[in-house]
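Fill in residues.
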């Protein structure tokens, strides 16, 4: 099992290996290189986080890219790239494309949801660290400068298994809950801050557990950790304030059989 990255230098080596322009993900590197010709591009959140947690080989999720230039500049850059990539625009003003079976979401930094809604004030690109749901998501990699950017305690928190709430507001609550659950059941998060415990309790109120499990099936078809029983037990333990929670790591499931057993 790959150990969690200990520091920015170690993580940078992993990220560079993942985006090796001569490796299997060469098309991804080419896409980002083209995108970053006018302004810096940030590989944001989940991709960098998961490479820190699980290593290069196990990462298989979407890739989020934040363009540090203006929305208009991004539109012009993408206009030049559209003959090679099929792009669709989403309701938040960003774009989605597929690069050799990798789903890529990208947007101009000024259109970041938390900035537009006024939940976080934009002062510099580092303000992006304040827009994520948890402390573990608050990280990005500067493509042109080959630099990992995160808070000082980032790697300490992650290696200690300490998960805390970074921003209460998020447009995809069910996705946040699934991510938190996966952090726990993959034995990465072992300590929950009081605020994230309260977030879990509040956001699960009136929510169907089966919807949570189905969301994981759709978002993470290659490796599933959630089922009706373990999610229900987890929530009950959180409500009781039980620090022991559920000690058994469940093996990932690759089929939908017994999904709610």
């Amino acid at each position: 099992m790959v150990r969690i990255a200990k520091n920015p230098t170690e993580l940078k080596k992993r990220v560079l290996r993942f985006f090796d322009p001569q490796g299997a993900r060469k098309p991804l590197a080419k896409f980002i290189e083209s995108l970053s010709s006018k302004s810096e591009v940030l590989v944001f959140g989940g991709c960098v986080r998961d490479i820190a947690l699980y290593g290069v080989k196990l990462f298989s999720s979407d890739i989020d890219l934040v363009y540090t230039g203006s929305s208009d500049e991004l539109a012009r850059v993408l206009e030049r790239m559209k003959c090679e990539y099929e792009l669709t625009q989403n309701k938040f003003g960003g774009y989605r494309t597929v690069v050799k079976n990798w789903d890529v979401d990208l947007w101009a930094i000024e259109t970041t949801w938390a900035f537009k809604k006024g939940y976080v004030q934009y002062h510099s690109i580092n303000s992006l660290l304040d827009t994520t749901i948890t402390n573990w998501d608050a990280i990005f990699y500067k493509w042109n400068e080959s630099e990992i950017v995160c808070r000082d305690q980032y790697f300490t928190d992650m290696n200690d298994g300490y998960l805390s709430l970074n921003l209460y507001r998020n447009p995809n609550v069910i996705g946040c809950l699934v991510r938190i659950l996966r952090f726990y059941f993959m034995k990465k998060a072992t300590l929950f801050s009081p605020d994230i415990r309260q977030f879990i309790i509040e956001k699960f109120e009136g929510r169907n557990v089966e919807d949570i499990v189905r969301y994981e099936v759709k978002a993470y078809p290659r490796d599933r950790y959630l089922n009706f029983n373990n999610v229900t037990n987890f929530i009950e333990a959180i409500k009781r304030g039980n620090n022991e929670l559920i000690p058994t790591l469940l093996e990932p499931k690759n089929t939908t059989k017994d999904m709610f057993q």
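The chain has two domains: 8-151, 172-240.
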